[in-house]
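Field guide to reading this record: the first block holds the primary sequence, the second block holds the structure written as discrete tokens, and the final block holds curator observations. Each block starts with its own label. This record concerns DUF362 domain-containing protein, catalogued under organism Posidoniimonas corsicana.

BLOCK 1 — SEQUENCE
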Amino acid sequence: MNPHDKTFIDRRSLLGLGGLAAAGLVAMPAVERLRKSRSPVFVAKGQSYTGELAQTIRDGLLACDVQPNSFQGKRVLLKPNLVEPSRRIPHMTTHPAMIVAAADVFRDWGAEVSVGEAPGHVRDTEMALAESGVGEALSDGGLRFADLNYEEVGWRRNRGKYSGLKGIYLPRSVLEADVVVSMPKMKTHHWVGVTCGMKNFYGVMPGIKYGWPKNVLHHNGIPQTVADINATLPRTMTIVDGVDCMEGDGPILGSVKHMGLVVVGANLPAVDATVARIMGLDPTKIEYLRLASHHLGTIDDAYLDQRGEAWQDVRSPFHILDEAHLQKLRATPDGELVS
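BLOCK 2 — STRUCTURE
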């Protein structure tokens, strides 16, 4: 990628400096400066699945200082959320129109684009593609799909070290990608509060190594392994489907909540923190974001450059389960709870 593209430099620089600081080779102020480097996050409102999504995504990436010419000849892997698709619950999974729109943008910029997913709850990926409508959309769009649950894997050292895992197995398509783009659905999550760009990367982890639904990761701590995966992956960015979202008992059994949003950014902790604020949650109380803020990027609103709409103007608290571990995530006392 373009070495002058600062949106791609910060995360790896921060990880490297963090390790050097731990070894006493660089001063902590250098780490602190990078941790608090400014990160742009783009928010668009009034979006629909029949609208000009490609233009919105293009505008969002450009607003976040992404350089189109840096994608020429590069391999881009789009990672939607197809956790447990059902035609009866379309607000559970990334809409096919979002995936095709993102692919159009990157292909226009000269990239080789493919789509990959390792559904966390279903072993039959063909069924997941059919139930989500994604299979038909990819066929119409001439897009290759990689079944990340069953691909050949490679082992990589765990760069995050938040969990006890010494290393992480990643599928071939992920290892060979120049950029992996997380395309989550904006949802509540019954264990960690929010599932967005970072948590969506659970779906790059191969079921043949981690089981269904990624039990090895759950046993090593969801927040810790979310942070580890994001620290170990190649370069990443995220495009959030926030049009028809899920609240309540997410990420599978919740209710639809229409927001009409698309959120874009190259710093995943920054984007996820912004989405949490829109949902009425305090990102500093979400454990995997708190961990990520140490080395992967800032979640401090004072260091986020909001492009497009201000998150305060589109904020609409999501219902969350009436569980003690979730209630404490509320940014403010307002907003109803459901059980």
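BLOCK 3 — OBSERVATIONS
Residues 1-10, 16-27 have pLDDT under 50 and may be disordered.
The two ends are 46 Å apart (CA to CA).
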